[in-house]
Every structure is written in structure tokens, then in C-alpha cells.
Design goal:
Elements (H helix, E strand, L loop, with lengths): L2 H13 L3 H6 L1 H25 L8 H4 L19 E6 L10 E7 L3 E8 L4 H13 L1 H9 L1 H7 L22 H4 L4 E8 L8 H24 L5
Antiparallel strand pairs: 1-2, 2-3, 3-4
Helix pairs in contact: 3-9, 5-6, 5-9, 6-9, 7-9
């Protein structure tokens, strides 16, 4: 993956987010997208070596479209200014955890994963799993590799108070108040140019495995009475 060329393209798109500019630069986009698909396939193959539950990954379905849905958006810019991919079963978005990464126009790499915007039954199952088996979450968060790389769950859009049915003094009540369960790490690729981007991503995802396994167990509770 020619990371510098990708960042340059995305920076140009950020400054010229319109259809004429994109059409003029479409050949460069097609080349970069092809390289990105190859990168995703490489990363997925590496992840499969340490995560046997990953399953088959189709790079074409893993990569997000660059075209924005502007039908109900105030911002009518037609294109996203990042290349992004979700390594997992995209058809289960909101139902199962997955790995995720993107590179944006500023050269920021965001990598990590978990489950974002879980469906209500899944969210309730995760919260109940935490309340019933707090030691399992403690163990996942305390894993040395996870703790070193991620430091804990990302805190975004948490409830101000415990959700209905959950006492305020429960262990991990801060986690129960979350609406999403994921962890991310960020790298400035302009300051830290990667020598092996696929390898870097695979290492980030390897360190995420304790959270992924815990989430799969928690989500599995949604299928039980």
C-alpha cells in the first residue's frame, strides 16, 4: 500500500470534495482502492492465524464505500475523506463484534474494534453479561497486551446514569452505562511512516483478541432465554 499516495489523494479530496475533481482523479482512486483491497486481504489472512472465529473475509465487502449517503445529511459533500474497512461479517453489523481500521485525509490511522451501535437486544445482553459475570470483563481489560495497546474501552456516548434495571453499585457500572463496546488506537502515519502496515494492523488486532472473545461470549447471551 502506497500510504503517502493515499494520504495525498485523500487530502486533495478533502479540499475538493466535488464530483468534477473526483472524476478527474478517478484513475488514482481506482489504483489506491485496489491496493487497499490487497491490504485488507493481507490483514484478514494474518488475523485468521490467531483468531479462528473470524471466518471468511471478502475484501470487496469489507471495504466501505467512499460515496456518502447525503439524502438526510446537512453536509452534502459527496465523498468520504477516508479509506475504511471492517474485518468481520458486515451482515451482522450491530449484532457481532468485528475489527475495524481507517486512514483519513490527515494521515491518521485508527485501528481497533468491538461492537458499535449494537442492536437493543444485543446491548441488553452485553449489559446483563457484565452484571452477571463481572470477573470476565475484569480479566479481559487486565490482559497485558490489551491494556498496553488500548488502555480500556473507548468512552463515547455513555449514559449519564445506569440504565433501567441496573443498580448504581454494580461492578463495572461505568461499562454498563456504555452504548458501544469497542477500543481503538490512533497513529499519525505522517510522523510514524509504517514499514509494514499490514503487520502493524495485525498486531493491533492481536492485542484486541481478549475484548473480542469477551464480547462474543456476551453477545452469545442474546440467543439464550
Amino acid at each position: 500500500m502506497h500510504v503517502d499516495a493515499l494520504i495525498e489523494f485523500l487530502a486533495g479530496l478533502e479540499q475538493n470534495n466535488n464530483r468534477p475533481w473526483f472524476a478527474w482523479n478517478k484513475p488514482a482512486y481506482d489504483i489506491l482502492r485496489g491496493e487497499f483491497l490487497t491490504l485488507v486481504a493481507d490483514v484478514a489472512a494474518r488475523v485468521a492465524k490467531f483468531d479462528s472465529d473470524l471466518g471468511a473475509v471478502d475484501p470487496g465487502k469489507a471495504v466501505f464505500r467512499i460515496y456518502r449517503d447525503t439524502r438526510f445529511a446537512r453536509d452534502k459533500a459527496p465523498y468520504k475523506t477516508q479509506f475504511a474497512a471492517a474485518i468481520g461479517d458486515r451482515s451482522k453489523r450491530g449484532q457481532a463484534p468485528g475489527y475495524y481500521f481507517h486512514i483519513d485525509h490527515a494521515g491518521l490511522l485508527m485501528a481497533g474494534g468491538g461492537i458499535y451501535r449494537p442492536l437493543p437486544p444485543i446491548l441488553l445482553a452485553i449489559r446483563r453479561h457484565i452484571a452477571a459475570k463481572p470477573a470476565l470483563l475484569t480479566r479481559a481489560l487486565a490482559d497485558p497486551r490489551f491494556a498496553r495497546t488500548y488502555g480500556g474501552l473507548a468512552e463515547e456516548d455513555a449514559l449519564a446514569r445506569p440504565p433501567r434495571g441496573f443498580a448504581a453499585d454494580l461492578p463495572h457500572i461505568d461499562a454498563i452505562r456504555q452504548r458501544h463496546y469497542f477500543a481503538v488506537v490512533e497513529t499519525d502515519l505522517r510522523r510514524q511512516p509504517p514499514k509494514d502496515l499490514a503487520g502493524d494492523l495485525a498486531r493491533h488486532f492481536r492485542d484486541l483478541v481478549p475484548l473480542m472473545r469477551w464480547l462474543r461470549g456476551a453477545v452469545g447471551d442474546a440467543a439464550r432465554p
